[in-house]
Amino acid sequence: MSAAQAFFDVLWGARMALLGGLATTVLVSLLAVLAGTLLGVVVGLVLSYLRGPLNWLVRLYVDFIRGTPVLVLILASFYVLGTVGWKLNALQAGVLALAIFCSSHVGEIVRGALGAVPRGQTEAARTLGLSFPLTFALILLPQAARIALPAWVNTAAEIVKASTLLSIVGVAELLLATQEVIARSFMGLPFYVFAGAVYFAVNFAIERLGKALERRLATDTTQ
Fold first, then answer.
1. Cα 54 from Cα 42, distance rounded (Å)
2. Domain definitions of the chain by residue range
């Protein structure tokens, strides 16, 4: 039996475990990006429009999280929170840690994007009597979203890559599933290459989706 045939035989036998790991990776990444984006928008708004103690606290939060390794956030969410009575399973702790990490980056992205929108447009909306929520929804958000989209796509791809660290706390994502297959088959290099190709495919799909959204936003803006 050739090495290639042996690899594909093992791959076929482990397909359900690997597909389950891929599904977990996608689920964790999706939940973390969604939650992190929602929190990050709030963080960006605070950094952009509020002053005083709340702004300082949010700035401290962003700087602290951005300066903390993702692995430390994951371990803290899984082990430290349990000691203070907030017990999370490995999956929940992983999603929380990645969402917090994502929110700090999205907050800076939103702050930068809102800062790039000409201030005169906000003043014009105020002159027309629009409330801030309407000004944000109708004027600021569409322009800021187009500016922020490329950096947000990069952040989403980073979250997918960071999800590999969840194997440390026992989340059965793609990397851990791959390592379990390797432990049984002793085919380290082929399966690590395979896992790398899968991660590349996921991130490539995210990149193409981001490009499609950019084109759509550009089209909507010119209409």
1. 12
2. 38-174
* Pairwise CA distance, residues 114 & 42, whole Å: 12
**What tens digit of pLDDT does each residue of 85-117 get?**
788 899 999 999 999 999 999 999 999 999 888
Q: Which of 62, 89, 73, 80 lies closest to 165, judged by CA?
A: 73
CB 41 within 8 A of CB 141: no
Q: DSSP secondary-structure letter at 2?
A: -
List pLDDT tens digits, range 136-183: 888 888 888 889 999 999 999 999 999 999 999 989 899 999 999 999
Q: Is 117 helix (H, G, I), strand (E, B) or coil?
A: coil
CB atoms within 10 A of CB 43: 25
Q: How many helices (H) and strands (E) does the chain have?
A: 11, 0
Residue 221 to residue 86: CA distance in whole angstroms: 45
Q: Name the packing angle between helices 90-116 and 53-66 (round to 10°).
A: 120
Class assignment of domain 38-174? mainly alpha
What one-letter code names the amino acid at 109? Answer: I
